[in-house]
């Protein structure tokens, strides 16, 4: 039986990283094997360029940044598929949806052009969009000064996520204004349902889009 591929998405500071860690912990306690993967992966060659771009140490054309974010996923795609084939469930902390939403909203790139570079990547079985208003997210301890960390930009990003990328068959929009525990309790049954369903139907991993 293959592992399931689950993506957590949302604007900055919506709680994705905390929820991914909490879900991994709960799934492990229930006997599942789980890995959490984060994009961008800032440790690879493309990731180092992206880290410099995000921290404003380097300037880059928006299209170049988009292609690097996309390449940063493509360079891990085979490893991701092999991990799933070993029966490991993978929780993604951001994925191609962030790739399209941020590039289209912030750099005003054509959405179809942004989607095209993601076509063919392993498709998550489910996407959990943690929905907080960018103003509430910013109030959670503030932004750290990276590129894109401003409320008006994040408002535009949220609009692209919900108006252009929302896919009723695959997405759950989870209200995420509550406490860590409240959000975890909303996510957990949805995640368990997906993990348990995979034990009965060994469907192959799909591809975007
Ligand atoms: N981001 C992230 C993109 O612009 N494109 C992408 O493909 C991905 C995965 O990078 F501002 C943006 C989103 C966010 C930043 O921040 C990464 P975190 O805190 O490492 O998630």
Automatic annotation (TrEMBL):
Pathway: Pyrimidine metabolism; dTTP biosynthesis. It holds the Pfam family Thymidylate_kin. GO terms for biological process: dTDP biosynthetic process; dTTP biosynthetic process; dUDP biosynthetic process. Residues 8-186 form the Thymidylate kinase-like domain. InterPro entries: P-loop_NTPase, Thymidylate_kin-like_dom, Thymidylate_kin_CS, Thymidylate_kinase. Its EC number is 2.7.4.9. The keyword Nucleotide-binding applies. One of its GO terms (cellular component) is mitochondrion. It comes from the Eukaryota. GO terms for molecular function: ATP binding; dTMP kinase activity; nucleoside diphosphate kinase activity. Keywords: ATP-binding, Kinase, Nucleotide biosynthesis, Nucleotide-binding, Transferase. PANTHER family: THYMIDYLATE KINASE. Belongs to the thymidylate kinase family. This is Thymidylate kinase. It comes from Cyanidium caldarium. The lineage of its organism: Eukaryota, Rhodophyta, Bangiophyceae, Cyanidiales, Cyanidiaceae.
């Amino acid at each position: 039986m293959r592992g399931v591929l689950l993506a957590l998405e949302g604007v900055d500071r919506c709680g994705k990283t905390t929820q991914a860690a909490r879900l991994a912990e709960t799934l492990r306690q229930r006997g599942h094997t789980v890995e959490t993967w984060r994009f961008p992966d800032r440790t690879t060659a493309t990731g180092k360029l992206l880290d410099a771009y995000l921290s404003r140490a380097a300037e880059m054309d928006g299209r170049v940044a988009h292609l690097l974010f996309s390449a940063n996923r493509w360079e891990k795609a085979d490893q991701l598929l092999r991990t799933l084939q070993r029966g490991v469930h993978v929780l993604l902390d951001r994925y191609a949806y962030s790739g399209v939403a941020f590039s289209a909203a912030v750099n005003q790139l054509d959405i179809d052009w942004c989607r095209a570079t993601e076509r063919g990547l392993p498709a998550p079985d489910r996407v959990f969009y943690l929905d907080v208003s960018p103003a509430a997210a910013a109030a959670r301890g503030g932004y750290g000064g990276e590129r894109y960390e401003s409320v008006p930009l994040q408002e535009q990003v949220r609009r692209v996520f919900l108006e252009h990328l929302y896919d009723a068959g695959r997405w759950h929009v989870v209200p995420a204004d509550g406490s860590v525990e409240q959000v975890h309790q909303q996510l957990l049954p949805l995640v368990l349902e997906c993990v348990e369903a995979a034990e009965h139907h060994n469907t192959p991993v799909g591809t975007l889009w």
